[in-house]
Design a protein that fits this description.
The complex is a heterodimer. By secondary structure, chain A is an alpha+beta fold. Chain A has 10 helices and 4 strands; from the N terminus they run αααβαβαβαβαααα. Chain A starts with a helix and ends with a helix. By secondary structure, chain B is α/β, with parallel strands linked by helices. Helix content of chain B is about 25%, strand content about 25%.
Amino acid sequence: MKNILYNTGYFLREVKTIIRINLLSNVFSLLSTGLIFFILAMVISGWWVSSQVIETIQGEAEVNVYFKEGLDKAGSIKLVEGIKGIAGVREARLVDEAEAYSRMEEILGKEAHVLAYFDDNPFSPFIEVKIQIDEIGAILKELEFMTGIEHVRDNREVLERLRSIAGVLRVLGYLVVTAVGISTMVIISHIIRMGIYDNREQINTLRLMGAPEAFIGFPFMLEGLLLTLGGGAIAAAMSVFSLKYLYAQMAGPLPFIPLTPLGTMTSQLVILVMSISAALGIAGGFFGLSSAKSS
Amino acid sequence: MIEAKGVCLKYPEGTMALQNINLQIEHGELVYITGPSGSGKTSLLKLFMGVEHPTAGTLRVLGQPIMKGQAMEIRRLRKLIGPVFQEFRLIKGRTALENVMLGMRFLDVSHRSIRKDAHNALVKVGLEQKVLSLVEHLSWGECQRVAIARAVARKPALIIADEPTGNLDKDNAMNILALLNSFKDNKTTVIITTHATHLIEGEKAAGHISMDKGNMSWERLG
């Protein structure tokens, strides 16, 4: 370790030489690594946005419980308390006719004047129940057995679909991360093997003079690390640029999508991409060195 | 220093490179190994450096047994050896100074003194004017001197020079031999191989190993 620290300048010069020997191949590797990391960054940011959308929607998951007409105020309050006691119910509150009417006015907006055609308030009171989406089945079953309930309106189908979309996105994300990891490792280990082959005479000379394997291999590891970090930096720059553009495009026509603030998104993405590129560079370096050694 | 008893070396393809080698070289001796091409000189040096292992017999170099499964120990042994390779094995694209320094970077020496010691070694071999020259710009004889400087700068216990006079005219060859001879002292043993036996006639060596088809005859002179 002491040797490696003392020889930092030498190792950096070695890396420069190794890269210079295979300049074109290294440039293409840098660009292809950058593109791979860019795809990864885009998938991750898409994953984050969709996860947030789904999380927000899931947080709003609710069912509406309509009770029998004859139920008085005290009875409906008792029913609310009973519903609150069901496992998986986050919140339950009574929405009376007046609130139901004003909500509909809000939803209709400019078209709300149609409500004036009704002589009386056409809306019934109901109980708004916010739930944990995973518990929807059990909650609906419990509600079935409660007395005083006329019917329950749930949007189970939509919620289930959202849940399956989230699952698919998660699997897709894992697959892309795995594919990027493997391809980056293959590229980097190939570059390192090539560097070792081109410098085999120097490596043999160092071995004959008693140089430790760590001393001989470190410049090649450093080369792999610099290539992936360079690729990561290219990907990070492209991602920041692309996200700025995409956010600007989405803000106008799709204002209802709950996006993470751009600054937070880009800084998290840059940190993640650079960390992944460093980790893959080191892993690819070890892989390349060990495969070159064994052959 | 070096002790060989009944050492044989047979390459995997079946060639018997060395047969029944018995010798003892002490600290501070100068030993010449002579013989025609293919006689086994380089194979013997490969054994001394732990590049090959005896297929029979025992060999100890600087106290270290040369045998399979001793990779770490042999690496440590090589740090004590100053090799001068047949084709120099200098690193292209680097200066003479960088080449000499490279041989010292992984040794247990003060990193502050590496540059100074490397420079001094180049001065000793008469290359003070070529310290910062790229090795590909040097003549054959100058490259040979850089290789020697790289070996001696490591302050080795054993200098092994494989055909250091090859491709040199007689005057330059004599100068190189004299230079290598000058590094022999109480602490440093020097072993030189050459196929030009006429160059070492009259040289003050402790021993002379004559190789022929893998067999050796050992003549102690000192």
